[in-house]
Amino acid sequence: EALPTNKERKMERKSVIESFVEYMTKNRGLSELTGNEYRKDLRNIQTWMITQAKVERWSAVTKEQIDDYVNDLVSEGLKPSTIKRRISCLRSFYQWAWIHGLQQENPAKYVSTPKLGQLVPKTLPTESIQATITDGTIPLQTRAMVAVLAETGVRISELLDMRLTDVDKEHRRIVVRGKGSKERSVYY
């Protein structure tokens, strides 16, 4: 196996995984939580590559080995969404490595992802929502939150981040902040 290049030696001082996660959280705006998930995913992949594929360097990983890894995940019964996230993480990692001159190609680029089934969200019957909103024994704040959720379809995390100044009564809309601090308007 070839000796590491100067860039690889420099990156080895700080783990390549840590450098990638740091780049994604500081420069690409990923949350710390997402960064931690990327870190766990890459460590999982790295462990599999070392123990199963007998590959110890990211630059030596092939598409076929990634396909084998994905097949193992499927046979372990992991959810398609988890497998898809790991493949996406690996693609981003190799793209980052290529940009930084650590990789000549992206072996994860053409790895196929499992199809995700349509998830049907669980909803409360209209009667239950109406009963909750009109039940005087339930605190007003809770009833108001249920009403906003039912009326607008916002995520619970978006609801919890709302402020009164986000509500525009004249136009019957609310500004909500979603994933990645992106703002959008919802109407009621």
What does this structure look like?
Strands 1-2-3 form a 3-stranded antiparallel sheet. By secondary structure, the protein is mainly alpha-helical. A hairpin with a 5-residue loop joins strand 2 and strand 3. The protein starts with 5 loop residues before the first helix and ends with a strand. The protein contains 8 helices and 3 strands. The radius of gyration is 23 Å and the shape is elongated. Helix 3 (32-51) packs across helix 5 (80-99) and helix 6 (126-134) runs antiparallel to helix 7 (140-152). It has helices spanning 6-13, 16-27, 32-51, 63-75, 80-99, 126-134, 140-152, 156-161, and strands at 167-168, 173-177, 183-187. The longest helix has 20 residues, at 32-51.
Uncertain regions: pLDDT < 50 for 5+ in a row? none
Widest sheet, order of strands: 1-2-3
Number of strands: 3
Give average pLDDT, whole number: 87
Structural class: mainly alpha
- N- and C-termini, Cα separation: 63 Å
Give the overall form. Answer: elongated
Radius of gyration: 23 Å
**Total number of helices:** 8
Biggest sheet record: 3 strands, antiparallel
Summed up, what is this model?
This protein has 188 residues and is mainly alpha-helical. The chain is built from eight helices and three strands; from the N terminus they run ααααααααβββ.
Characteristic terms for this protein:
188 residues, 8 helices
SSE order and pairing:
Blueprint: H1 6-13, H2 16-27, H3 32-51, H4 63-75, H5 80-99, H6 126-134, H7 140-152, H8 156-161, E1 167-168, E2 173-177, E3 183-187
Antiparallel strand pairs: 1-2, 2-3
Helix pairs in contact: 2-3, 3-5, 6-7
